[in-house]
UniProtKB/TrEMBL annotation:
This is UDP-N-acetylmuramate: L-alanyl-gamma-D-glutamyl-meso-diaminopimelate ligase. Residues 2-102 form the Mur ligase N-terminal catalytic domain. Keywords: ATP-binding, Cell cycle, Cell division, Cell shape, Cell wall biogenesis/degradation, Ligase, Nucleotide-binding, Peptidoglycan synthesis. Pfam families: Mur_ligase, Mur_ligase_C, Mur_ligase_M. GO terms for molecular function: UDP-N-acetylmuramate-L-alanyl-gamma-D-glutamyl-meso-2,6-diaminoheptanedioate ligase activity. The lineage of its organism: Bacteria, Pseudomonadati, Bacteroidota, Flavobacteriia, Flavobacteriales. Residues 307-436 form the Mur ligase C-terminal domain. InterPro entries: Mur-like_cat_sf (IPR036565), Mur_ligase_C (IPR004101), Mur_ligase_C_dom_sf (IPR036615), Mur_ligase_cen (IPR013221), Mur_ligase_N (IPR000713), MurCDEF_pg_biosynth (IPR050061). Its EC number is 6.3.2.45.
Length: 450
């Protein structure tokens, strides 16, 4: 099969390209720019475009499929050529469904936790040598790629993102998978550029619930009131399995989960992570993993990349980085670190980087998100606001939104770096939350602070 990727450099797109190359398909692709790690990984497999840009001459009628990435625009010259020639065009979630129609599809959805839960499931299955196909949104220890597709595996585990599928397919990705087994972890308003109201956003999760196959299984977090309502109000003929935060204790900086076999020490911590673990356990049990087998494997799970990732530590200081950017994630992550290191001063640094977080009307959602921090810092780039063509956001608006009079605000990357590197780190926990890099912060330099 000959497949061409428009916008091959994306995180999910380049992994899908590699997975299909490994499956024996003939792969080509284009993008206007590709950064590492995508660039070096595509190069390793011989599918990196020879030059960047869009080349309509790459599109011909002998292509079987074109896979269109979200990074491309509707007027992309390669897309227009494919449409003109009548070549079959898929978004990557649409193509994943085509590749998994004869498999048992397990889809993990929710505003937060879906990458971690998917990672936990794959870690447990890998520990017990149970081979499955998958697509996950983070690089995992012990897994070479973030996508795997085979002919023979019975199960495919998919991280179900609610964002749009492609520039010409405005459906949320997780509406396309038609799961046999699904999970909903939580609902907290996000992607306001696409879902302008909370009600409209919640509706997408109702549609997801209705998309399960008849008789399918829905595992859901009953502690989230919006998830509970969406699932329990559904009249779709599915089986419903609620989960909640398991009982646990914290001893000397280690979280121990209560089980029938006794208390087990975990590498991870925080109530959200423990909720995620409870959901992952249910999914694994539906995939044939016994409870004791799950616990045997999960104690060695260290977390998904960029999700509450410990980047350096000594006896007096610990520094984490986390992908958290939405209000609910920021609050949960800040609370988790403070609870885990209750006797240390917590310095929590948040970068407002996404479209939603830099939107003046959305800022109010951050009320209380950094309350658990002893020292709370917000960084944002006025240039990023301009690039996203948003209304100007002022420091006064940010201070009002978080409702902290002592909030420290930076707009200059060098000033933020100077602040961070001049901190007295004795008896401190430092938390760096961002889906960006604070205007160019080198995290390898941060490691050398301790």
């Amino acid at each position: 099969m000959k497949i061409h990727f428009i916008a091959i450099g994306g995180s999910a797109m380049h992994n899908l390209a590699i997975a299909l190359y490994q499956k024996g398909y003939q792969i080509t692709g284009s993008d206007d720019t590709i950064h590492d790690p995508s660039k070096s990984r595509l190069e390793k497999y011989g599918v990196l475009p020879k030059e960047f840009g869009w080349f309509p001459e790459k599109i011909s009628s002998d292509l079987d499929v074109v896979i269109l990435g979200m990074h491309a625009k509707p007027d992309n010259p390669e897309l227009l050529k494919a449409q003109e020639l009548g070549v079959k065009i898929y978004s990557y979630p649409e193509f994943l469904y085509e590749q998994s129609k004869d498999k048992t599809r397990v889809v993990i959805g929710g505003s937060h936790g879906k990458t971690t839960i998917t990672s936990m499931i794959l870690h447990v299955l890998n520990y017990h040598d149970k081979d499955v196909d998958y697509m996950v949104g983070a690089q995992l220890e012990g897994f070479e790629t973030m996508v795997k597709l085979t002919e023979e595996n019975e199960f495919i585990v998919l991280e179900g993102d609610e964002y749009l599928s492609s520039p010409i397919d405005r459906r949320p990705k997780f509406h396309l998978y038609k799961p046999n087994i699904a999970l909903l972890s939580g609902i907290a308003w996000d992607h306001i550029n696409v879902f302008p109201s909370f009600e409209n956003y919640v509706e997408q999760f109702s549609i997801f619930t209705e998309s399960l196959t008849n008789g399918g299984i829905m595992v859901y977090n009953e502690e989230d009131i919006h998830v509970k309502r969406v699932v329990e109000d559904s009249t779709h003929p599915i089986k419903k399995y609620p989960y909640e935060t398991p009982k646990y204790t914290i001893e000397n900086g280690t979280t121990l989960i209560e089980t029938e076999e006794g208390d087990l020490p975990l590498e991870i911590f925080g109530e959200h992570n423990l909720q995620n673990l409870a959901g992952a356990k249910w999914i694994c049990q539906h995939m044939g993993i016994e409870e004791d087998e799950f616990y045997e494997a999960i104690v060695s799970f260290k977390g998904a990349s960029k999700r509450l990732e410990k980047i350096t530590e000594n006896k007096e200081t610990v520094i984490f980085k986390d992908f958290a950017h939405s209000p609910s994630k920021v609050k949960a992550t800040t609370t988790a670190v403070k609870n885990q290191y209750a006797n240390r001063e917590l310095v929590a640094c948040l970068e407002l980087h996404t479209y939603s977080s830099l939107n003046a009307t959305f800022l109010a959602e951050y009320k209380g998100a950094l309350d658990k921090a002893d020292k709370a810092v917000v960084f944002y780039s006025p240039d990023a606001v301009k690039i996203k063509q948003l209304d100007e956001v002022t420091e006064h608006q940010i201070a009002e939104a978080f409702e902290r009079e002592d909030l420290i605000i930076f707009t200059n990357p060098q000033e933020f770096k100077t602040f961070l590197f001049n901190q007295e780190l004795k008896n401190k926990a430092v938390l760096l939350m961002s889906s960006g890099n604070y205007g160019g912060l080198d995290f390898n330099e941060v490691k050398r602070l301790v």
